[in-house]
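Might I ask for a little of your time on a matter of protein folding? What I wish to show you is a protein chain and, alongside it, a tokenised description of its three-dimensional fold. I should value your view on which stretches of the chain appear to form regular backbone elements. You will find the record immediately after this paragraph:
***
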Amino acid sequence: MPKPLIILAALLVAVLLFSCGEEERPVRVSLNNRQEIAAKPPQPAITYAYLPQYSHTESFQRHQQLVAYLAEETGLSIRQVFPETFAHHISMFSQGKIDISFSNPFVYVNLARRYHAKAMARIVEEDGRAEFRGQIIARRDNKAIHSLEDCRGKSWVAVDPASAGGYLFPLGLFAGHGLTLRDFKEVVFAGGRQENVILGVYAGLHDFGTIREGSLNVLEHKIDINQLKVVATSRSYPGWVYAYSPRLPREAVDKIRAAMLKLDYAHNPRHRAILDAARFIGFVPSDDLDFDPIRELNGKVGLEGE
């Protein structure tokens, strides 16, 4: 017999001998005793949302320390959630998915009118005011735009139709100088992001843009903001506001408000770090009447807070 066939035969015999050995006893599995394993539901938490005028990364970096402080100080479970757009923020609030809303006053007026949001505190801006303004910006080398009147017939990029400093306040400023929406070549919106407005003007995609005061600093390490100029600035209006859902228990509201008002920028280094990250320096108590100037502005420019 050829050698390869001898090797093959030996292998077959070995396999047969191994297979004929003592069989392993089968393990019986009973399906009568079963235990259902259910996914654990998420622990209930108070949801906190920053109106998304910047990227989610920027929103998180600004507010993570503040959210952690509020949770620690109140003993409540609080987590930050991230709406995609201004409209999504409003929708989430209406659906009970946002308990604490940090928004501009224009969005607050909308939430109060439609969904019974209640103001609890306003922020104190880095300049020490509980108010803020809108700005009109253009490229510094744009020789065609030096004043509000020069914006007539030009391309305008704004933050969002529900943006206060990035749209409503400048719209009121234009209206006070006799300019209406029909007087511009176009008005386009930048998806609710201040950065997109700044970059759109910087790149020359639009003649001018409107932002909230202070937003240029967000991009100071990414572009040469000296290439941009402020053409005009609106008057001051009531600042950004923390509002709560009517679903939130009053006891929780009182604890959160007290924790906010306790923050001491001047004398507590830890509090200063929290507030520096958030880009404001404190809180003042607030109620719904503070925002009547916004309602008056809405009427002036023909908006109803939608």
